[in-house]
Here is the input.
Amino acid sequence: MLIIPAENTINWKRPPWMTLGLMLTCLLVFLFYQSDDPRLMAGAVKRYLDTNLLQLETPVYETYLQRQIELEGESARVRDLQAVDEAVASNARVWLAVQMLSDRAFFHYMETNRSLIWSPGQQQAWQEQRLPIQQEFMDRLSANQLGLTPASLHLSNLVTYQFLHGGWGHIIGNLVFLFLLGFTVEKALGAGRFLLAYLLCGVLSGLVFTAFSLNSPVPLVGASGSISGLMGMYVAIYGIRRIRFFYFLGVYFDYFRAPALALLPVWVAKEVYDYWSGDAPGVAYMAHAGGLLAGAALVLALGKSWLQVRETFFEPEEGELDERFTAAYAQAMASIARMEFRLAQPQFEALRKQYPDRPVLLEHLYQLAKLRPDQPAYRDRARELMQQTLSNHQWERLVEVWQEYLSRGAANEPLSAEDHNRVLFACLRHDDLKNAEKAFERLRSSADTTLIPEACRLLAEEFEKRQMLPKARHYRELLPSL
Here is the structure.
């Protein structure tokens, strides 16, 4: 079962640049720094199969897996043992080589117990053949270089492991969740504090993982601990507010609302349960749990100081937003009804600043500006409205505003050549040749030497397409003089 918060929608006018930067960094590290891993692994497998290591280690590996199942209770390794038995039966040499080379804990087991496993001659052969492969190839893999290895913890690896990934499925999954959670937390905290909190959650997550995997030689890689920290920060930012969550169960998915922090113990409990059940030993469940707790603790402890949420973050509910707009809009319309136009204008301007996606507000501001056609404000509103109607594909309204302005305000504040050119193109696209010609005449009177020839040529071509040859000839003859 998957449950993730889904309260916010992204505002692409203010993109989450730090989140996108982290995603790009992870992708570049995977594509370039980690790109040498397949070559190293292929070299290790080739060298391995050129020796007698496969025959020497396979029975030891089967015994090792049986010990983990029977003595350490790792039931998930039953599937690994079955797969090894099937590979031995089918002589899948390459698969066996990759499996045993990749199991760093198995190498550590052989290195520690070689005197108990093999005879002195076999020990010497193993050391001469296996150790060079480990040193020349396996130790140089990105995970072994910069991953977080509990048995040999380095402080720098607490940061570097967050940018490494184990494959395409791993990185794609992490990048998706980083984006879904990151843009909201970045919006709440700001880019700089978001980055520091993200990295710190990864560090704390890695320390929790190390505490539960002491002396493990298996490296941890991936951003999932840091991303779990984002999830913890997300719900802590909202606190007890009821927010929307998305859940996915089998093939069914839906949304529900709940107090944000109520989901934190559910997530942590799930990670702890999965850790103790051991159904997927390759997943760092305790790193996830550590990240969740670290993210929530950071916000709850520092939410009034270093990690204080921006005041502009909390937006009103959709219903509340509509109610506010309706009330303010009614007040502005009441001012118009009372013919208090000077009062209505700042009211509509304030509304438009707060609700820039409501086209009707510009219409009202245009009508108010039209009351004083001798003022520059009328031209400015007309140009804004023409641009808005053009963006909304309302070409008839565009032409209407243009014609209205020509009759009322052009004598005081003429429109620019670009304005007439936009009208001309819109009319040509909608087969309104009459108004296209009028727009051309206005354009021609502006003396713009860059736009006029092209407009003239387009008119000639359009009349030629319609077999209106006199008109076409007129514009063709006019073209050389422009």
Notes: The chain has 23 helices and three strands.
